[in-house]
Amino acid sequence: MSLLNEFKAFAVKGNVVDMAVGIIIGAAFGKIVSSFVGDVIMPPIGLLIGGMDFSDLAITLKAAEGDVPAVVLAYGKFIQTVLDFVIVAFAIFMGVKAINKLKREEAAAPEAPPAPTKDQELLTEIRDLLKSQRDK
Fold it and tell me: Can you tell me where the transmembrane regions are (predicted)?
């Protein structure tokens, strides 16, 4: 099999396509969460701590000199990123938890017992006939 045919067989498998869709949706979901954290969650928190914007929190280690930019430890951006991660992780946890609950409910539903086979039906009839003859 040629290298091109092997790649074609690999690329059109369902798992690869599903993974690609998941990555694209994950990237879009990441943008939504970043917006949610930055535009909805962080402003009230910043207001509670005195109108401070977390992304502005930083420590200047070395001031700018001429064309050399300042060396800054931007820990506010790190705090923002950690909050983004926690919210994404929690959302994924809740989604997986809901899916697992649905699977458990589906598995917990009792199955109807299987119908007796022809052999079992015949043996039951023979038993009943023998029993009725003995009772006479």
Answer: 78-96
Q: Compare 91 and 117 and report the one with higher pLDDT.
A: 117
Task: Give the pLDDT confidence of 55-73 residue by residue, as tens digits.
Answer: 778 999 999 898 999 999 9
**Cα atoms in the 13 Å half-sphere on the side-chain side of 63:** 2
Q: What is the pTM of this model?
A: 0.50
Q: Side-chain half-sphere of 55: how many Cα atoms within 13 Å?
A: 9
CA angle 80, 34, 52 (to 5 degrees): 40
Confidence of residue 1 (pLDDT cuts 50, 70, 90): low
Q: What is the CATH number assigned to the segment(s) 3-112?
A: 1.10.1200.120
Q: Which of 87, 93, 89, 79 is nearest to 35 (CA)?
A: 87
Q: Any idea where the domains of the chain sit in the sequence?
A: 3-112
Q: Which residue's structure tokens are 């928190």?
A: 45
- Closest Cα partner for 33 from 76, 100, 81? 81
